[in-house]
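Deliverable D5.2: sample structural annotation.
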Amino acid sequence: MRSFVKVGVLLVIIACIATLISTKPPRNELNLLIWDNYMAPDTVSNFEAQTESDVIVELFKSNEEAFAKIKANPGTYDIVVPSDYMVDVLRQDNLLEALDKASIPNIANIAESAKGNYFDPDLSFSVPYAFGSAGFAVNTKFVKDKALSWKTLAEERFKGHIVLMDDMRYVLGSVLLELGLDPNTTSKADIDQAVALLRTILPNVQKITPDTPVDLMIAEGAWVAYGY
């Protein structure tokens, strides 16, 4: 009888431990799809510590890659950080869930200048995170021009010394601007005109890359780079 009691107590203790373990609330998990170098090195670890959650970070190198990932894995990502126009593309494909603004009180601090954009006029699906610009980076050791244009880059002297970012939306938009056309045009004639100019430059292009070509510029492997 005494042995039976000992075994019974042991089973009760084990049962209690198992109950305690199983009732411990699991850590929340946040799946984030974002560009590389878009956060400080300690942002994720600080967030995890403050919220007792785990952040699963997945990187992409182009908006098209991000779209493909989201399209192929609906419901996988909690937060995605694409460029502005991609918000509209994702929304039209019903790949975005409307924001619960009551859970985002800091949305009231968004500057008025960041609102009213065509891709999400009333911030129903997105919140502005950062903004920047694209342009030419030039190694003045080799390029003495005071100003550069897309037409200039078609000259023979630039052959093999140009790097372009792999983002058709921004490259094409910049060329359209130079031609005095709307960068958001849907006119086939306008787009064909911009593409024709780009074709004259392509023989001089050494590389088209999804990354900002900082290393290539530092190593003098490129004289001109178009990117962020």
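Annotation notes: Confidence is low (pLDDT under 50) at residues 1-19. Helices lie at 2-23, 43-51, 63-72, 84-92, 168-178, 188-201, 214-218.
The annotation will be released with the project's public dataset once the embargo ends.
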